Amino acid sequence: MDAAFAEYWREMPIDPRSAFRKLVARIKFLTGNTRLSNNKSQAATGVYFNNSIATNLSSLEILDKRLKKHIKNVKRTRLQKQLNKLKFTKGFEERRYHNFSTKELTTIVEAWKHG
């Protein structure tokens, strides 16, 4: 999450629209679940599937609080509204899925290569 926001702040002065879209996609990826395409088993990954044996949501609640702090630093209200809809606990409890193309996934993970 920290790397996603760091990448946003790095890119925002250069290309605000792209930085906006990438940040939303990265936080959706982190707070939700997705089915990996291009594999026969249609494997799922994400906040629920990587933590499915968890019974105590306190760690996810801590992540939600950290996310909220990051969101408060963003000055664009439209971006804040989109990000405030995303929560680690919701992604886990509701097993929320987000669909990403292969190209989008490549863009999403770029932040972690730099972070």
Give a quick rundown of the structure.
With 115 residues, the chain is mainly α. The protein has six helices and two strands, in the order ααββαααα.
Task: Describe, in plain words, how this protein is organized in 3D.
The protein has 115 residues and is mainly alpha-helical. 60% of the residues lie in helices and 5% in strands. The chain has six helices and two strands. A hairpin with an 8-residue loop joins strand 1 and strand 2 (44-46). Helix 1 (2-11) crosses helix 6 (102-114).
The biggest beta sheet is recorded as:
2 strands, antiparallel
Our Rg estimate from Cα atoms comes to 14 Å
Compute the number of helices: 6
Strand content: 5-15%
**Overall number of structural domains:** 1
Shape: globular
Helix-strand topology string: HHEEHHHH
| Uncertain stretches | none
SS content category: mainly alpha
> Mean pLDDT, rounded to whole units?
89
What topology emerges from the helices and strands here?
Layout: H1 2-11, H2 16-31, E1 33-35, E2 44-46, H3 58-73, H4 77-84, H5 88-93, H6 102-114
Antiparallel strand pairs: 1-2
Helix pairs in contact: 1-2, 1-6, 2-6
